[in-house]
Each structure stands twice: as C-alpha cells, then as structure tokens.
Design brief:
alpha/beta; Archaeosine Trna-guanine Transglycosylase, Chain: A, domain 4; 6-stranded mixed beta sheet; 14 helices; globular
Length: 455
Amino acid sequence: MKKVFILDTNVLLHSAAALESFEDNIVVIPMPVVEELDKFKKNQDELGRNARRVVRRIDTLREKSAKAGGPKLFEGIPMENAANGKEAGTLIVALDVPLEKSNLNAADPSYADNRILAIAEDILKKTKAKDPAVKVSIVSKDLNMRLRADALGLEVEDYKKESIKYEKLFTGVDKCVLSDADMDDFLSGKAVDIPADREFYPNEFLNLSDESNTKKAVGFIRNKKIVKPYHLPEDTVWNIKPRSQEQRMALQLLLDPSIQVVTLVGRAGSGKTFLALAAALQAVKKEKLYDRILVTRPIVPMGNDIGYLPGSKDEKMALWMQPIFDNLSVLLRTEKTKDDSAVRRQINEMQHMGLLSLEALTYIRGRSIPNEFVIIDEAQNLTPHEVKTVLSRAGENTKMILTGDPDQIDNPYLNADTNGLSYAAEHLKDVDIHGHITLMKSERSNLAAAAAKYL
C-alpha cells in the first residue's frame, strides 16, 4: 500500500535527493515549502545549491508531465525513481488551507510551519476518508516541528535515508581468537588467515588472543590477512608520543600512504586534530610524501553568531582556525622555538612557502586537490552530501582526514546518527583505502576527561 510523505523544507535543504527517495509512494511538497525554497535559492552555500536543485527538478518533472499530456502538480505528477521492480513515485504540490478550518485556527498564519501543519491535517483528513489504512506522515529534521506535529495527532518522522545508528558505529577495532598455532605464527612475524567463522573490514585492528587466553597481541587486517601493525620508529611522530593504544592505531592509519581516507571519531580531548596535524607535519615536512597540508573546517558557530567579521579572508579565518593554530603551536614548539612569536613566525613561514594552507570549506567546491594532506576538522557539522562533495575533490596522491565528535554537533539539523562524519565512517568501512578509529579516552587533561565523561 502506498504511503503519503509530506516533506518539510529542511529535509530538501539537507539533501536534494530526498525529493525522490521515497520509492513508489506519494511525496507532498506544501506550498509554504516551495516559498521557503525560493528564499534560499539565491544563497551561495550548500543550502542554496540544494534549494536550486530541488526547484529545478520539480520544474523538469512538471514540464515532462505537461508535454506528455499528464496531470499537473496539484493533481500529482509521476517522478522518475522507479527501481527494484517498483513503479515511480508521485509528486504533489499542495496548496494552502485556511488555518481557521484546522486545529491551528489561533496560530499565526504568517509562520510557515503553521501553514505546513494545516496542510498536513487537511491531507490526513481527506486521505483517511478515502482509505483509513493509508499512512500519512510528515518528514522533518526540525525537532520542534516534529513535537508540534505529534501534539496535533499527526504522524511524524525524521529523514532517515542518510542516517546510521551511532551507538553501533564501526569502531575500527574488534576482537579475535586465534588457534595456538596461528598465534605462534603471528608472533613470529607471519601473516595468518582470518578464522573461517569471522569477517573483518579492511584496515581494521584486532585485539588478538590465543585459545587459552594466555598470549595477546594487536593485529591488523591487510589484503584479507591478519598482519602485525606497522610500528613507528621509537613510537614517535613529529616529536610526540601517543598516549594510548588507540592513538597508536590512529597514527598508523594517518601515516600509511595506501590509506587515502581516514575517519577519526572521538570525544573532546582525545587527540583527533592533534594527531592528524602531527601526522601531516611528518608526512609533508619530514617524509615529503605530499606537497602541502590543507586544513579546513565548516563555519558553524557553537552559540549565537557574532556577525560579520572585518578584514581580509585570512583575517576572518584566523578566528575560526584558532584551534588549529593552538595545536600547531604545541607541535612546532621546541627547545629552539619556545616563545609564541617564534612559533607563529614558523607557521607564517610555512604558509608563505605554500606548505600549509588554512581555508574555509565554503571555497572547496569545484576544486581538484592533488598531492595534499587534507584535514577536515569538525566534520560532524557536515551533512553526508557535503562530506561526499569534499572527498570527491581529492586528486592523485591526496590523503583526506575527517575528524570530529558526533556528540558535539552545532548544526541544528544534524545529530549523531545523521551527520556526515558518522555516515562516512560507516559507509566506507568496506573500502580498502579507508581506515577508521574511534578514540574513547580524553588525553587533554583530567578536567577535560571529566567534562567529556560526566557533563
């Protein structure tokens, strides 16, 4: 039985593909949503691009239906998403309904959400009159919209197509019991076969034990074999030592040129950005594996935005990139370079020589980025589509690092299940060139660890 899905504006702004993601069901776009898309379409950001894509797609479907002598938008036009033996869905643009005829008769009619809810009530009433078994649901990424819809007795849900279960997110580490013979072979330096009853992902780490649980080791999946992880010389990278096994695992992924995309998920203070920058300095300045380091992060404020910032692009970016400067200052501080001014001169010199570039994510679309070590910090504030856009910029011999904490999301329409970082970590786990580690322990300070754990 076909279902009716009424889409909120934020769903289409989150992903333009949402328009045709409901299989053979009926998708309803309320008129207030069309009006809101019109307001966003002039924006030169991801929201504006998605708004334009949705509007163009609706118009294309409208024109094809008109040329074929088919129905109009308010009647329901066919889409082109037929797949897996199912027919195409139907798209309807629903006209406004007077609020006086709904349960929102005392609500403000100038507020788009009120008009959308009134339309949804009207559709539910008319649909149930024809067939009480048909499901009618509002799809919205706005938590407040979902609460109001539920209070009105309307079925409501989040857009789930690009979501994962964060509590079941791939961690990059698993356990495995080897036979005594295989454990002896492994400890002697040989690659051993994966047990027949187990399956693991490429570049996954394993906490190994033998059948008697007397011998333990750490293994690594490479070419469908269990091998010893690559050990760092003296266990240091750019003069820093990892403080935990998880950090050692992360550094192996970060320094392995064959692994082209790494996702690092972890709580505040676990060292995600710090480790990525240390590996970047090692790979670019010492090992000369890449031409330069490119660091970028989404411009999403944690609290109320402070408005427009004065100065050039670099001056505006300085505030957003301060966390990067903080980490670089620690990494570049040596016995010879102790004071902040000397460290800052070294950073400026790296930028002047083209070894380091700090850019806003806004300017990455359309670019091709070859031979660079790219760090996308705070990637939990990106949508899955934005992460796809960023990763698709990679040229030959470019390594992409995504870091972030899905428990600290500032984007109002994302959560731990729907953000681009979690999505990438889960959906790339089968890919040979991807590696992932979830860092559980905060190493910044005892206070930072306590805050991350208890607050």
